Amino acid sequence: MNATRDETGSNTDPVDIETMRATVRRTLTEAPPTGQLDTLALTLRGHIELLVPEVEAAAGRQPRDSVPRYCALACVSEARRKLRIGDGSTLPARVAVAQKLARSANALCDHYQNLNGS
Question: Which InterPro entries match (predicted)?
Answer without folding.
Answer: DUF6415 (IPR046300)
